[in-house]
Design goal:
alpha/beta, FAD/NAD(P)-binding domain, 11 helices, about 30% helix
């Protein structure tokens, strides 16, 4: 039996941030377990065709959280990053419209603009129609029938789930308000008038993939990180974890950043809480590399067209020095690829996106409250089962480190 003060499960951005922050505060009784052979989680990079490819999909460092960036620049100084203005597009037939669509309708042909404007004007949210509960109805109510039909509904079904009404609407409040007057003004002046989306400005390493940052954070911790060690059994009452090789580790505080379903067994939970974990849903995503440079200045492009397997491509040649692009595809749709590309580099992330299902908020609230009383904390995208970006999970880990000591 090994005993430590802090046992952290998962060496992704949240686990690495928490461990490094505690270590910098002088804490030495820390152990960080990672099932993979290297740190980084979904933000890891691999050398593909002579340059880095981010195997977890597109990950970038947003500029919106100065405290987060200041912390991360300790491991990879700011002069090792390039700063970009976001150029992301949506493929609508032969048109490539800047994101967000509602702010850039003006980029479409005049006759199509008119159709979109009429649809937005008729949206329920602009006409005092009560907010619906079902996901599909909510999207139409919020954005209008045309944006819903042409983009939001097909794109979300490709990325998350075939049955969209399994998803709740509570997480959609972050969508910008669709102000018809602003959209009308943007069409008149040919300029976007809307709140900028996340990563409006972002950093990406000059000479590496995004995974280099997290690799350095893991290296900084030395023997604190135990790679190739999967946490198989979590004993709630003893705050004890058993790894795949049978090692038992007991801690005063256990912080888990790994998917709840990834444990072989969790001991000490009620039947209701176990059933709640079983009900949690996620999507699995494959990244696939293509060597061609595309004729676009965008860093990434969204594809709602259901005839195409992938929902998004990342144009590597537009944000780092490599060539080509990679696709992101929900695993259920990979059979739609041309078999010739099966020889390309491919990587499957079993746990890519937590799904915001109708019952998720209650499941996670009950689970985390119960575990918190036992000295076990869920943190980050998977510990909280929420679709957080890397900058946000770093901020949450910094906050937790302050609470812990």
């Amino acid at each position: 039996m090994i005993s430590v003060k802090y046992l952290i499960l998962g060496a992704g951005p949240s686990g690495l941030t928490l461990a490094n922050t505690l270590y910098q505060k002088g804490e030495r009784s820390i152990l960080l377990l990672e099932k993979e052979d290297e740190a980084g989680g979904l933000c890891r990079s691999k050398d593909v065709d002579g340059w880095a490819l981010d195997i977890g999909g597109g990950h970038f460092l947003d500029v919106r959280r100065p405290r987060v960036n200041e912390f991360l620049f300790r491991f990879m100084p700011e002069n090792e990053w390039d700063l970009y203005e976001r150029d992301s597009r949506i493929a609508l037939g032969d048109n490539f419209v800047s994101h967000p669509l509602e702010a850039n309708i003006w980029q479409l042909p005049d006759d199509v603009q008119k159709e979109y404007l009429e649809s937005v004007k008729a949206a329920g949210c602009n006409n005092n129609v009560p907010k619906p509960d079902r996901f599909v109805d909510w999207i139409t109510w919020k954005l209008g029938e045309r944006i819903a039909k042409d983009y939001m509904l097909p794109y979300n079904s490709k990325m998350f789930a075939d049955e969209l009404n399994e998803l709740g609407t509570y997480w959609l409040e972050k969508l910008p308000n669709v102000d018809y007057e602003d959209i009308l003004r943007s069409c008149s002046e040919h300029h976007a008038y809307a709140k900028q989306p996340g990563h409006a400005s972002f950093y990406y390493p000059k000479k590496h993939g995004y995974g280099e940052l997290w690799k350095r954070m893991g290296d900084e911790l030395g023997d604190v990180v135990k790679a190739g060690q999967k946490a198989d059994i979590l004993d709630i009452n003893d705050r004890c974890v058993t790894t795949q090789d049978g090692t038992k580790i007991r801690a005063e505080v256990v912080v888990t950043t790994v998917p709840w379903k990834s444990f072989e067994k969790i001991e000490g939970l009620s039947i209701e809480l176990k059933d709640g974990i079983k009900a949690l849903k996620h999507s699995s995503i494959e990244t696939r590399y293509f060597e061609d440079n595309l004729d676009s200045k965008a860093q990434w492009i969204y594809y709602p067209d259901h005839k195409l397997p992938y929902h998004r491509i990342l144009l590597r040649h537009n944000f780092c020095k490599g060539r080509g692009y990679w696709t992101e595809t929900r695993i259920e749709r990979t059979h739609l690829f041309d078999k010739k590309s099966d020889d390309n580099f491919r990587y499957v992330n079993e746990y890519a996106y937590p799904l915001n299902t109708l019952d998720k908020p209650k499941i996670m609230e009950d689970l985390l409250i119960f575990l918190g009383k036992k000295g076990i904390i869920g943190l980050g995208r998977w510990g909280e089962h929420s679709h957080y970006n890397s900058d946000l999970v770093v901020e949450k880990a910094l906050d937790l480190a302050e609470k812990l000591g």
